[in-house]
Amino acid sequence: MEFYQTEADKQRLDRQIGRATQSVNAVKDIVAQGRFRQGYHLMPPAYWMNDPNGFVYFKGRYHLFYQHNPYSAVWANMHWGHASSEDLVHWTHHPIALAPSEPYDTCFRGGCYSGSSVVAGEKLVILYTANLVEHGVQTQKQCLAWSDDGIHFSKYHNNPVIDCPKELDAANFRDPKIWKHGNLWYCVVASKINGDACCAIFRSTDLIQWEYKGVLVRGEGKLGSMWECPDFFPLEDKYVLQFSPMNLGVYKTIYLVGDMDYDTCRFTWKTKGEIDAGFDFYGPQTMQAPDGRRIMVGWQNAWDWMPWFSGFGAAPMENWCSCMSIPREITLGKDGLLHFKPADEMKLLRSSAQDLGLLKCAKEIKQNLTVGDNIHFELHLDIDLHLTNADSLQIHIRHSDFEDTVIQLDFKNQVLTFDRSHSDFCMKGTMTRPLPLNSDGNLSLDLFSDTSSIELFVGDTLCMDCAIFAENKSNKLFFESFGGDTILNAHSWQMPRNEKDITNN
Ligand code: FRU
To answer: pTM for this one?
Structure first.
């Protein structure tokens, strides 16, 4: 592999990174004081963040890049922000990794779009989408960048390395995900063929010359209009394709489980599922940890074209926007579905463990709880549905006289509703899904509350990530049981209250 960058290209990139870094540094100390800043979710030090990019383990650290506008808290002018971690939960912010610096990727309504990275020998190699809009015409091409230390990147002098094949849509040809199989490199790229959403597949021996191997799989008109941020990876003896479909109603992160045929480069799937059913989880990316676990993070926000979108929340008023979800581990269940749980490393953030014991939530009596500071906490519930005779249980979080977030567990109809209609002044609506019970007929639920979000893990198969921007004084937590009593066991932990608790700089 011979990667090369001219001195002039390097200087241009360094200049753009320097400018962007200065812009962020000028405000980051003030931004850090924002009252809606998260306690233990990774956020940009300032300004805009979207999709996770290039998530990888390289030379002893997890590296997580992200779509970033370092000049304002709205989407534009895409750069790659960068943080790394030894344990997935404590982070070090690094200088911006990629900035638009070349004619092929410099564009206010574009720039260095999403992509992925792989470890190739001693190098970390990135494939990202260069997005240009010229005279009203949008084109997307795949470009290569690399680094020896995982911090400083160079762009390949002969970029782009992948042009859009003729049969695909050059305005929708983005978000490459690379992996290695045998001695060959592969990458999938989201696109459209005759108007139908699809993933194209390419193969390479050196990461520079890519051969188009056709369409890995297409939506047949049933799975939205474009599959953003595809990720394709082996799990047990199967392959998983996950993506964020555009225009598929309330579904915004889908997975397909099936078989990969490397001779034909075609993927045939049998099972379909939803990765996250909350309001705010998009463009997730996975990586394989050194111990073999498949770890996923997603962008904890949503786009304005989504049916329930009512705004990016209160954070942009504080000159930042969005954060990453907590890391999740995914496995393939015997039921053929993906199973999700918080990555074990989340336990490193716990303090003040409380065993709240066996609780009886009597019919229509508010059962108040104190878990840590009632804002930054993890709460684990095991609900005994054999002893419970209630029809439903409501969990009220971030409650006050003027704000309330409600998770309703309807045991009778086996439905869960996340209601943020009264959570704050900007994020509205309810989201409903079937309630997944454990194989013994009981219900387990893990709830992560942070300054401005709630993340739920229900049973093995349902996750809901939701941003809420409640005031600090909205900090009451209570259960209320309807139609009978609910019997549950509860454990709780205080979680970090301030980003300083999880960042080293
Ligand atoms: C998804 C997405 C990607 C694109 C990036 C641009 O959130 O639209 O498809 O690469 O954001 O920031």
So the answer is: 0.97
State pLDDT tens for residues 291-321: 999 999 999 999 999 999 989 999 999 999 9
User: Rounded to an integer, what is the distance from CA 162 to the centroid of its chain?
Assistant: 26
Give the residue whose CA is nearest to atom 2 of ligand 1: 228
User: What are the catalytic residues?
Assistant: 51
Atom of ligand 1 nearest to the CA of 229: 9
CA of 443 to the centre of ligand 1 (A): 36
- Report residues of the chain scoring pLDDT below 70: 1
In CATH terms, the superfamily for domain 350-504 is Exo-inulinase; domain 1 (2.60.120.560)
Give 325-365 pLDDT, tens digit per residue: 999 999 999 999 999 999 999 999 999 999 999 999 999 99
Distance 200 CA to ligand 1 centre (A): 17
Which residues have a Cβ under 8 Å from the Cβ of 264 and sit 6 or more positions away?
none
Q: Which of 41, 44, 112 is nearest to 72 (CA)?
A: 44
Q: Taking the alpha carbons of 111, 79, 346, 290 in that order, is the dihedral positive or negative?
A: positive
Distance 228 CA to ligand 1 centre (A): 7
Which of 168, 161, 158, 170 has its CA nearest to residue 200? 168
Residue ranges around ligand 1 (CB below 6 Å): 50-51, 67, 78, 113-114, 129, 174-175, 228-229, 282-283
Question: CATH assignment of 7-342, given 2.115.10.20, 3.20.20.140, 3.40.50.150, 3.10.310.10?
Answer: 2.115.10.20
List the one residue out of 250, 257, 256, 310 whose CA is nearest residue 281: 250
